Please model this.
Amino acid sequence: MRIIVDCMGGDRAPLEPVKGAYAASLEYNASFILVGDRAAIEKIGESEGLNLSRFDIIDAPETVEMTDDPLTVIRQKKDSSMNKALSMLAAGEGDAVVSTGNTGALYTGATLIVRKIKGIKRPAIGTMLPMDPPVLLLDSGANTVCNEEYLEQFAVMGSIYMSKLYGIKNPRVGLLNNGSEECKGTELQLKTFALLKNLPGINFVGNVEADKIPRNACDVLVTDGFTGNILLKSIEGIGKYALSVMKKMFMSDIFTKLSAVLVRNKLSGIKKKFDPSELGGAPILGISKPVIKAHGASDAKAVKNAIGQAINYASSGAIVSIAKEIKVFTPAQNTENNSQNNSSK
Model:
């Protein structure tokens, strides 16, 4: 297994991606390719005492900045670490790419360089929500505007991902909505509901309201990227706020401080659950090879975990299963659409 790490993207690059890749090399049975400014990477190795002799380092003098247009990775910055990393993956020189860089650029580059699975209309970013058990959110930000066919494919990809990587048999798929009744929602939700309830092989459990997500309502939650990103950021914000309130409460007087000592391990477990670094990154589902997007502010631990996620995804067979499933159900959809068009003539 060869993992390609884009070392120049993100708020804390290249230091944290390099440290994260080094930590991953000590834990996982894989080899690593570091893509970025060679001089900067080697300097980090020296200053941090990291033996990088076991790594292949590919020099990439340009960096896709967080403020760059998504198409920059294709048009202006072909010598960027992101472009080179994705091009190497497309050429079969590695098994997965991990990047903390510009989300839009990574999504665009993955789509245009590595390419989509044949039949996939739009890839989607799949983020694990910190629930018990965890819930896969699709899409969490890539596609702000969607139609019902996109969401239908998100349901298929998400179901396969949770089955292959989390061992969930017949994952429950829910549609994020403002009510549980079939008649609720905008035109997008109504049309998507009609498709999902008749989709063979998908365990569709209907509409899921936001307050039901922590109550084990589903394993895969489908929505458009605009709504999904708002939901994701809301959960992250509420988690941080709740932890700050608890900390303030336990530090208010001597009695609560003593109580905090007694429940310290429990509190650490809660904090760990809402820590983004524990999840590592989010796969861009629908791309023909594994591309993992880690948070822009990822530290070494988060990068290491994102690499672990990339290894699991690459070895799971999920992409092959998605390709087979899409190949089976896409022609059926086209046949149905053609018959409807012919009957209307």
Confidence is low (pLDDT under 50) at residues 331-345.
